[in-house]
Amino acid sequence: MPHHQSLPDTYRLLAAFSGEPTNQIEAFKAAGLWQQPDASPQRERVNLTDYQRALLRTLSANGWVRWVSWGQGYVLTGLGEVRLDGYYERYGPAATLRAPRPPGNQ
To answer: How many CA atoms are closer than 13 Å to the CA of 77, on its beta-carbon side?
Structure first.
């Protein structure tokens, strides 16, 4: 997704989350930050890179996303919405494969 390359990775990843639980791999894919091959029958797990773990840790530590066991995924928090609004004002839309953010929906 070359048109997203100028946006901060934290913004791209944060924009992939919503109120619906999303697993981290799907969020990274939606943000265009997934480079690893998908799991195959020979590989039971797909590991995040150190950089991807650091990005997710940043979002979680700042309270922008949180893990919910009822949906087995991360959801965007109110603080995350505020942060998205700030990113949106600064950089414009960060439409991801999962959660496009239309103009005027701040």
So the answer is: 11
Closest CA to 53 of 26, 24, 77: 24
Span 83-89, average pLDDT? 93
Tell me the CA end-to-end span of the chain in Å, nearest whole number. 23
- 37-58: per-residue pLDDT in tens? 776 555 556 788 999 999 999 9
Residue 2 tokens, joined: 């070359």
Question: Residue 73 in 3-state DSSP?
Answer: strand
Distance CA 28, CA 26 (A): 5
